[in-house]
Amino acid sequence: MITFNNVSKEFVDGTKAVDNLNFTIEKGETFVVIGPSGCGKTTTMKMINRLIDPSEGSIHINDKSITEGDIHKLRWNIGYVLQQIALFPNMTVAENISVVPEMKKWSKDKITARVDELLGLVGLDGNTYRDRMPRELSGGQQQRVGVARALAANPDILLMDEPFSALDPISREQLQEDVQHLQQTIQKTIVFVTHDMDEALKLGDRICIMKDGKVIQVGTPKELMTTPSDPFVTQFIGNRQIKKMESPNMIVRDVMNQNVNLINHPTLSTKHVIHPNKTIEEAYQQLKEGSAPYLLVKDDEDVVGTISYEDLARTWMKERDA
Amino acid sequence: MDTLNRLYQLFIQRQDLLWNALWEHIQLSLISLLIAVFIAVPLGVFLSRQTRIAEFVIGITAVLQTIPSLALLGFMILFVGIGTTPAIIALTAYALLPILRNTYTGISEVDPAIREAARGMGMNSYRRLVKVELPIAMPTVMAGIRTSMVLIVGTATLAALIGAGGLGDLIMTGIQRANNEYILLGAIPAALLALFFDFILRFTENRSKGASFTPIVTVISLALLIVIIPPIVASQGGSDASTRLVVGGKEGAEPAIIGNMYKLLIEDQTDIQVTVQSGLGGTDFVYNALRGGDIDMYLEFSGTVVGDLLNIEDFSYDEREAYEQARDGIYEAEQLIFLEPMDYHNTYAIAVTSEFVEETGVETIADLDPYQDELSAGFTFEFIDRHDGYPGLIDKYGIEFSNVQSMEAALRSRALVSGDVQVIDAYSTDAYLVEYDLVVLEDNEQLFPPYQGAPLLREETLDEHPELEEILNQLAGIITEEEIQQMNYRVDYDDENPEDIAREFLEEKGLIQ
């Protein structure tokens, strides 16, 4: 849990980067800070690992002020992913990932094992990539290593400063999804800075909208859309659908028919059963291949609904009208 | 083809000389480079943390670099004497700038994002430097070291002028004697050495792929080995406790021959060991070395003492009076002892080619008067500067040449023979006068004062060894102009050893057994 109490930052030249910030980032959530350039979002993030110190106010992590204790140890426990990726060009992939564990004096074996584990986690084959130099990797691969490096010593907090903005659209999309999946596994507190509203809506559990150094609104994507506190928020979100509700990323759970009589179904083969987290695209394919009128939606052993061509058609029509 | 052949012959004959010079050159270069690396790399790192004073400090090293190397060497004699020490200091000063600037630039130009990543990951300042900034800057640092290396190997050839040895000895000898083979024998290995060092540095850099410390560590340890081992080996040989004296000498054959006569006489009649350190540049270099106590004596001429060292304008033209003026003056001014002079004069002279004499029929300097507007002169810096030199020529003879080029003493005769100039100043005992059949014009207005050679000693040396006066004065009044010219010729053109010639002469005169 990260708490900002009346935090302001004035630079030596007199510009006020952030002005009286007050909010709390909950443990395990993905907290996206968004706003136009110069709004103070990066400054806000860099104050958490003390790359910038606030001129007023205080920041606490788990009720302990971040100015207490050793600054380096603080940073070892906060993963940091940069927009510029900034892998150390003089080190191999493995050496890059080992930087913080080495400072924490982990054993060699533990570090080696951790490097391979992390490479797997970010979707890179250890044997192929371990000893490569950063310049031999594509931008997307580099940033995967960047994420692995940030996670190396298993920090509780991950700071991501516009991590995908330098990548091409395809790599960006892929990495966004990977981070989403990753977050389900690792359950870190992620502070994510972006200027891309689509990205924010897609990844954020909560979104903090900033403008001119001030927080305009903090809320879940749904809250921001349904109850914007300020015309700026409405304007900033524009007429977007929440990305999570959109096809093709829409999942079966979002469109299935839950009001069915679940008792009188004949026994269906696995071809006719689908998990609620599958996409509707996959549901469509399965319907076609199984030549059945509907699929049974099963979460583990529980039947939670059905999905049919009709449900899909209704969804797509709604979307077309939107 | 002919030159190559003669070069090969010389190489065969003088191999020992070459290897020795090459080794001295390598040591001189490596020591200087090492010191420069040890100063400039840490300083560059420091400056990258103190950017406000960085440009200022780098500016200072840039100024060091702009000082002409010869001037720096000459200046240094006053403070640190002659030999390897001032040479190493000067070479180090030259090597600083490229290494310092490249270290500073290399570190400053590390991507700020990478710096921030290192900071954000909790590296402390030292770790950031060692693990990230220096390795990334390393190729740039190495490039600076390579530049300095080539610079040092080249400049080190000048170190010969202050007695530091090296390949410059061969080059200077070649220039002295107008002998191309000697020049090449020094210059070609110097160039190859620069290329070789550059290759080694590149090689180690390429071998250790990417940025790391391996190249610099390899090079430094190798260099240390080369630099440290020989002195250790040498010190095993044990040192001799007996007194040592150093006889200095200017560039050229004559100071070397006479210096060796001093050595042979002293060693024959005392237990003192004497080293001859000739080839120490011009008058200023060797005079400063004497005042600084690096050498104990050297051959000087009465006219030079009076006109140059004491700056007396109204000197006497009587040779005895001029000598006494020099002896008394230099003792009063610097407490230096000027012993009894030898017979010959090595005076300034104005020389022209015999073809020129045939064409124009000039015999005296005054005869040049009608031709002064058509003639180019090649004079030494010293001659242009002295009262009894070119200014005197203008005063006394009213002759002002249309074009006066200043040049190194050894180069004048070549310029004259090649026709670039028609008039030069010469020393009357120089061997090239014979070799090129040059004509010395009569000084009918007595512009040039008498130049009689005698040992100039430090008073302390004579106090310690009073017997030296008698020993050295054995040369007083002997050696004719013909004899010395002959001996000079044998060194300059027959490549004979000055010490052998000196010994032969002294034995002939019955001064040593």
Automatic annotation (TrEMBL), chain A:
Main location: membrane
InterPro entries with a match to the protein in the record: AAA+_ATPase (IPR003593), ABC_transporter-like_ATP-bd (IPR003439), ABC_transporter-like_CS (IPR017871), CBS_dom (IPR000644), CBS_dom_sf (IPR046342), Gly-betaine_transp_ATP-bd (IPR005892), P-loop_NTPase (IPR027417)
Compartments (UniProt record): Cell inner membrane
PROSITE patterns xrefs: ABC_TRANSPORTER_1, ABC_TRANSPORTER_2
Spans through the membrane: none
Gene Ontology CC: plasma membrane
Record flagged with keyword Nucleotide-binding: yes
Catalytic reaction list: a quaternary ammonium(out) + ATP + H2O = a quaternary ammonium(in) + ADP + phosphate + H(+)
Domain ABC transporter: 2-237
Pfam families, sorted: ABC_tran, CBS
Family recorded in the similarity comment: Belongs to the ABC transporter superfamily.
Subunit structure: The complex is probably composed of two ATP-binding proteins, two transmembrane proteins and a solute-binding protein. The complex is composed of two ATP-binding proteins (OpuCA), two transmembrane proteins (OpuCB and OpuCD) and a solute-binding protein (OpuCC).
Protein name, UniProt field: Quaternary amine transport ATP-binding protein
Protein's organism: Alkalihalophilus sp. As8PL
Automatic annotation (TrEMBL), chain B:
Organism from which the protein derives: Alkalihalophilus sp. As8PL
Family, as annotated: In the C-terminal section; belongs to the OsmX family.
Record-level Gene Ontology MF annotations: transmembrane transporter activity
Localisation: Cell membrane
Domain ABC transmembrane type-1: 22-201
Pfam name, any one: OpuAC
InterPro entries in the record: ABC_Gly_betaine_transp_sub-bd, ABC_transp_perm/SBD, EgtUBC_SBD, MetI-like, MetI-like_sf
GO BP: any one term: glycine betaine transport
Membrane topology term: Multi-pass membrane protein
Transmembrane segments: 26-46, 53-71, 77-97, 136-162, 182-201, 213-233
Keywords carried by this UniProt record: Amino-acid transport, Membrane, Transmembrane, Transmembrane helix, Transport
GO cellular component, one term: ATP-binding cassette (ABC) transporter complex
PROSITE patterns: ABC_TM1
Name of this chain's protein: ABC transporter permease/substrate-binding protein
Domain of life where this protein originates: Bacteria
